[in-house]
Amino acid sequence: MCLYNRYHCTCHHRLTNKIVLFICLATFLFGATTATINQFRFTPIEGVDKNLSATATSVVLIGGLVSAFLGPELAILGKDWFDAAFIGSFLLLSTCFVLTFLLLWFYQANHAPKIKQKQSGRGLKIIIKQPVFIVAVSSAAAGYVVMTASPMSMYVIDGFSLTQTKFVIQSHVIAMFLPSLFTPMIVELFGLSKMMIIGIMLYLVCIVISYTSHSLNNYWMALILLGLGWNFLFIGSTSLLPHAYNNLEKCKVQPVNDFLIFNMQAMASPSAGWFVFNFD
What we know:
This protein is mostly helical. The chain has two domains: 37 residues; 213 residues, Growth Hormone, Chain: A (Up-down Bundle), CATH 1.20.1250. The chain is built from 13 helices and no strands. Helix 7 packs parallel to helix 13. The longest helix is centred in the first third of the chain and has 37 residues.
């Protein structure tokens, strides 16, 4: 019996390790795909005048309203399809990427740019020292770094149900993308800089509400403010970035921008987990 139990535990441990390995691989591939798709947000900006860049970015983000409803529903729908929780959710998510692949595969640009000779523009050291580049990267990074630990805190630490957690996250994602319908008017009235300052102020209020209580209502209010702040910062930073480079430099500046932003987010994720488990 002891040998059987030891063998059973060993097999279960190996199976768990394989599941973890596959989840890590899936997450890695998901990250690579997301990094590629994120580059597409600069495309509409390049097709309009710089004073319309915020409007172009807002139009792209409106598509996120669909994800606000579709993403959490897919997570709930596929959660219990397999013995390991959420494997079905990953499977449903992968079908969305397949549909995206098919849409992009059959897309053909009517006016593809023709590069006659290889030119590189200024060096990166010069570009990244510009105040406009520093502000663009810093504001976008702040927007992503703050929004890391909420699902874990709600579902794992405070014991809210998956349905309650889904409702709060769904509200948060709606708050991230719905303001895109009105952000161009805000930019026209106040300008990019003031809109981004408002985004930072919304973050500060979000932090105060989160620190005060971990009730469901506080989570809901804090995550809505977090979404609004992210929208203002993300649209502002994406619209500011093209002011830091010219057409010859965009292919090296845009990837560096995203590399810095999402590496900061990657460092914030384990840091958030450590803070939640040690100071909550």
